[in-house]
Amino acid sequence: GEVVLLGTMIVERDKKIQELEHQLLYIDSKMLLKQYLLEQTKMKASNDRVDASNTAMDLSRKRREMRDKLKRRYIDIRAQNGGLHEYADCLKGGNPRVIGSSYTVRIQAQLCKAMHSMGILQHQLAIVKTSSNTVVQRFKDALNDMLDQKSQVEVDLMNQLMVVDSEKRKIEEDLMEEMQSS
Predict the structure, then answer these.
(1) What is the pLDDT of residues 3-51, one digit of tens each?
(2) Do 175 and 17 meet the contact criterion of CB atoms below 8 Å apart?
(3) Whose CA is closest to 87, among 117, 118, 95, 76?
(4) Is 48 helix (H, G, I), strand (E, B) or coil?
(5) Cα angle 18-19-21, degrees, rounded to a multiple of 5
(6) What are the C-alpha distances in Å from 171 to residues 70, 102, 180?
(7) Could you give the 3-state DSSP secondary structure of residue 74?
(8) What is the pLDDT of residue 22?
(9) What values do phi and psi take at 101, rounded to 5?
(10) Can you tell me whether residue 90 is helix, strand or coil?
(11) Which of 119, 133, 115 is nearest to 66 (CA)?
């Protein structure tokens, strides 16, 4: 009777030990998977940061190019304005001989050309401002979304790792208690 009872207890204990070892292996593999996923997430976040940095540099380059283009337009308009000042001086002086001359007609043509260029420049400037503000806002929104997603994934993975680690410790404790009690 006692031998059979001890034999049964030993078999049950061995089964329990095997079950706990199996659970421990399962939790170890689960923990390795979570660590792998965390590393993958970190790598993706790093790559996303590089992409965002490249996009920011590209936007800065385009902004500089547009600023240079606008600066050249401004210089062209300023150069055309020299003749406009002469025209204004002629009109202020009220000299009828000069006002009716071909010189005045040429200055008037320059005035029309300068006014047209200024209108185009103002329109282009408004377009550039609107476009750059839109692009910058989209970039900021995308970056914020990416950071939020990265943070959420990291928090989830860390929580999962803590749960797996806690389960592992519990199984190890149970295994140790089972071994000590027999």
Answers:
(1) 898 889 889 988 988 988 898 899 888 888 888 988 888 888 888 888 8
(2) yes
(3) 95
(4) helix
(5) 65
(6) 70, 102, 14
(7) helix
(8) 92
(9) -80, 170
(10) helix
(11) 133
How far apart are the C-alpha atoms of 61 and 100, rounded to whole Å?
A: 49
How far is 138 from 125, CA to CA, in rounded Å? Answer: 20
Question: What is the DSSP code (8-state) at residue 94?
Answer: T
Q: How far apart are CA 109 and CA 97, in angstroms?
A: 18
Q: Tell me which amino acid residue 65 is.
A: E
Give the mean model confidence (pLDDT) for residues 157-162: 88
- Tokens matching residue 24: 């421990």
Is pTM beyond 0.70? Reply is: no
Give the C-alpha distances (Å, rounded to integers) separating 139 from 18, 38, 75, 110.
55, 25, 32, 42
Query: Do the beta carbons of residue 20 and residue 174 sit within 8 Å?
Result: yes
Question: How deeply is 122 buried, as exposed, middle or buried, from its count of CB atoms within 10 A (0-12, 13-18, 19+)?
Answer: exposed
Type of residue numbered 69: K
Cα 40 to Cα 31: distance, rounded to the nearest angstrom: 14
Residue pair 181/9 in contact (Cβ under 8 Å)? The answer is: no
Q: In 10 A of CB 22, how many CB atoms?
A: 11
Q: How many angstroms separate the CA atoms of 156 and 48, rounded?
A: 19
- Read off the amino acid at residue 114: A
